[in-house]
Design a protein that fits this description.
alpha/beta; globular; binds thymidine-5'-diphosphate; 8 helices; Rossmann fold; disordered N terminus
């Protein structure tokens, strides 16, 4: 049971000794994924679970190099398929050099965006076909499917406002510049994925205080992956 203010959980931590898990956080702009990824890693550490937070596009030196090109506001237009291949090129490096070796060593991976972002941004918006995505997914991701995907859900308008606040006067990237309609479709896409595969997904209400969202996430991770181990 979560406390009302999301702050304290006073059961004694039970040490975890199972396989390493791959958790992804998904959702639109400004939903707090990167902050919550870091909180989750800290919460896991309390249970003695070695974990780290990473992100896509990026996460490894090669993938971060590709990220700069993909998100560069000055970059020339690319066809949807070319753009999608760049996301998968970055993902391939991230998986090969960081995600799979870490999981093999027993280290949990908490990733801010992964393939479901491609399915939403490039797929659900009709830019590349499901068949094209399936080929890339099989080639690059193969069996390394996340054990749990948390969709941080917010009304699109609130997410965009939060993302703008975070960005300040800085330049928005090519994806943040899209219309409200685009962001509404994205939200529907993520919710649709979750509905279609509830065994992998959990939708987290990302509205309200950061500490409350953190607790909502912990409740799901604890129940689904840790056999109910809890702590404050
Ligand atoms: P980022 O600054 O990391 O945004 P956010 O904080 O919202 O995660 O930029 C990543 C952008 O790239 C974001 O707008 C989503 C987009 N993206 C795709 O279009 N396809 C993908 O496969 C991934 C991983 C991200």
């Amino acid at each position: 049971m979560s406390s009302q203010d999301g702050s304290k959980r006073l059961k004694t931590p039970r040490k975890y000794s199972g396989p390493a898990r791959f958790i992804t956080l998904e959702g639109g702009e400004g939903t707090g994924k990167s902050t919550q990824s870091r909180h989750l890693v800290s919460a896991l550490a309390v249970l003695g679970v070695e974990a780290f937070a990473t992100r896509e596009p990026g996460g490894s030196p090669g993938a971060e190099y590709i990220r700069k090109s993909i998100l560069d506001p000055e970059r020339p237009d690319l066809s949807a398929l070319s753009e999608t291949l760049l996301f998968y090129a970055a993902r391939n490096d991230h998986l090969d050099t960081l995600i799979r070796p870490s999981l093999a060593k027993g280290i949990w991976v908490v990733c801010d965006r992964f393939s479901d972002s491609t399915r939403a941004y490039q797929g659900a918006l009709g830019l590349v076909s499901d068949a094209q995505l399936a080929v890339m997914e099989k080639l690059v991701v193969g069996p390394t499917v996340p054990d749990l995907t948390l969709v941080l859900d917010l009304p699109a308008k609130i997410g965009i406002e939060r993302a703008h606040q975070r960005r300040g006067d800085g330049k928005s990237d090519v994806f943040e510049r899209q219309s409200l309609e685009f962001h509404k479709k994205l939200r529907d896409a993520f919710l649709g994925f979750a509905k279609a595969a509830p065994e992998r997904f959990a939708v987290i209400d990302a509205s309200g205080d950061e500490a409350i969202v953190r607790q909502r996430i912990w409740d799901v991770v604890s129940e689904r992956l840790l056999g109910g181990a809890t702590h404050g």
